[in-house]
């Protein structure tokens, strides 16, 4: 009975994209990013995207692919610059950039998804981040007001989905995916495996399907940004 | 003899106590992990969503779904737990991490810290640094006393845009250990062979007795 | 013939659509679950922390760790997921639930609803009712048109302390179905054998054409 | 190496109680309540407690036990009154009561634990709950300011803990336990089973041990408030 499952990433985005839209993309660095949906977004040709994502990918992978094609007008991120094209567009003024502290960014997404339009945080008080924001004291300490974020579309990546959109993530690939899925007016999830509803233990579901409107099975490159290893000392 | 990077990390490791939850920044702070006594129960947090960070994987065992906040491949430990970014920073912002050991470009005598941007240079962003300095109970900075030009990084007031205001508790440099106290910085330890005079000559911040 | 309780529940079930996430209140709204067509994919939320609420357990299979928001023992379904109360109300407050069907003591023509306290009587609390009416996209009230004294519950303005202000979209009573529209309530359906005149006589609220 | 495990509920509370303290107690109705720690709190004799709990138990179980002994001065709850003694104390003015909408209460705990001293919500606008609270418009809608809650002590109940305090909950017994554990200056968890650290899958931990300072294995009555069943039609 479930109508959430789509055959291709392109089909999963059908009818959801429009120029000037706001898109949240899950992932931290290149870990847990919605590789397939980013490609489908590129193919869709949608322009003037405001992309909310902790990072901006690298030149030829992740959101970097949408920078190459100049489909992104503005980014809201906490850390960028593993990406030459990003740098060029930013320095030339072609790309707008809003830096958010990482925790503020995560909480803004969770708040947006939870119907909380604003919250106070200590993060950034006394810094550039606090400029122009309301300051307020609680119990003798100063906090600033940050607002909730909502996206026209959230694209996220999980390890598994059941056909009702219940999601399970793998290790640190969870990261921004759950709060961003909560904050999407529509959320599309790409996964490594779609299992029949009932296969997931209800206590082990990380994100209930109510936050996920469409699902597609992807194929994944899973690029590693910093391959660090240690020598095997004992055999 | 000023402390080497590794000696600074070893000194910083003395800030840890049994049962602590700890966030280590990039650079010298990362080395602190190598100096945690084996019998001490310390849990390392990685702000991308993990408690109980293990060492780098053996070659060939790298898992792209298992990285730390520096985007390096790592491993789990028996105690490991994973969670999303909102929960991770709930821990940080909520004061549940006992200590963060971080690098810095500048620190000031009032506990200000600057470690995220240099005006005129390309800015990569603050990542989780502002959340850490604002939320974690105790902030220890580990850094060289002077920059590569030989200019002190221990200032009366930071010149670079701040990461946090009045948040640093202790500073460990290659020359000494300072505490941020009323009125300025107090030297609580000197590297072997380093004199108080050496420290004073390399420091702009007010040093109090 | 006014609708019976069960007929009201059946009428309310017509408010549901395929793929909906639904929160049902206590009383008549609970009966709505019995009228969901078998081929319709509807997921019931229980605000204590569950999506995919199943029927009551067979005798002897009650699980004290598995209850609904009315504290009744229930069961799971294949689609069920569990979560904590903060996440549960993030769903509700964040507008992720498509519809809530709730009982009421009073509703007013401007969409106000009162269903949690009667001054002078012992107040048990609002539970999750205020969160539901404020957060859920569409609020449908199912209630008797008049109270036990024969006084209308469909008012120009609520007399009891409100649960939510201007939040009700549709009202299903034993006599008719109202929509809350500009200027008052619009009758969109009558129970069989009930006339517009009957409704007008039993309603204080402004009825608009 | 872990020092989080205590032998008895009484030992687990040692040094943590003082008159006038604020205590959060997890659970919804009688489901997932910290039965053993409530008893230990009663034995401790601590007085003038402000208890933050969604409900107030029944006369002879749950927080009702602390009402019997008049150890509670004030309750912050969303729904009470399955409890005659509660009713008597409240009507006679012996017990203070602050009603919070259930979702506001849950979010206030989560906020307190997450270092968020205040947040805006639509819940309660135009009702008694909004009286005296700041009103503010975001995107043309009115919201009220609610504050984060922190407790001197949080007592919670989980199904399993490992010796580092990582917790796993069972079904709807999860409820308020995780957000309240986050909001405790000290959090003590009672569990049905303590397993060696390493036995829990790191992706299946519901609440990381950083939020839990002490653990004790309890024995549980698990009373059912509304035993509802259906007839077996087929065999």
> What is the overall number of helices of chain A?
6
Q: How confident is the prediction overall: mean pLDDT of chain B?
A: 97
Number of structural units classed as domains of chain B:
1
% residues in beta strands of chain A: 25-35%
Mean pLDDT of chain A: 96
Low-confidence stretches of chain A: none
- SSE ordering of chain B: HEHEEEHEEEHEEEEEHE
Mass-distribution shape of chain A: globular
Which parts of chain B are unreliable, with pLDDT below 50 for 5 consecutive residues or more? none
Name the structural class of chain A.
Answer: alpha/beta
Strand segment count of chain A: 12
**Annotated CATH homologous superfamily of chain B:** Glutaconate Coenzyme A-transferase
TL;DR of this structure?
The complex is a heterotetramer, with 2 copies of chain A (235 residues) and 2 copies of chain B (209 residues). With 235 residues, chain A is α/β, with parallel strands linked by helices. Chain A contains 6 helices and 12 strands.
Structure, described:
The complex is a heterotetramer, with 2 copies of chain A (235 residues) and 2 copies of chain B (209 residues). In chain A, 20% of the residues lie in helices and 28% in strands. Chain A is an alpha/beta fold. In chain A, the strands form 2 sheets. In chain A, strands 1, 2, 3, 4, 5, 9, 10, 11 and 12 form a 9-stranded mixed β-sheet that branches. Chain A has a 3-stranded antiparallel β-sheet with strand order 6-8-7. In chain A, strand 4 (72-77), helix 4 and strand 5 (96-99) form a beta-alpha-beta unit. In chain A, helix 5 (102-113) crosses helix 6. The mean pLDDT of chain A is 96. Chain B has 209 residues and is an alpha/beta fold. Chain B has one domain (5-208): Glutaconate Coenzyme A-transferase, CATH 3.40.1080. In chain B, 17% of the residues lie in helices and 25% in strands. Chain B is built from 5 helices and 13 strands. Chain B has helices at 5-13, 28-31, 85-93, 129-135, 196-201, and strands spanning 21-24, 43-46, 50-53, 76-82, 99-102, 106-108, 113-114, 138-142, 154-155, 170-172, 176-181, 184-190, 207-208. Chain B has a 10-stranded mixed β-sheet. Chain B has a 3-stranded mixed β-sheet with strand order 7-6-9, with no helix packed on it. The chains are: A alpha/beta (235), B alpha/beta (209). At the A-B interface, helix 4, helix 5 and helix 6 of A face helix 3 and helix 4 of B.
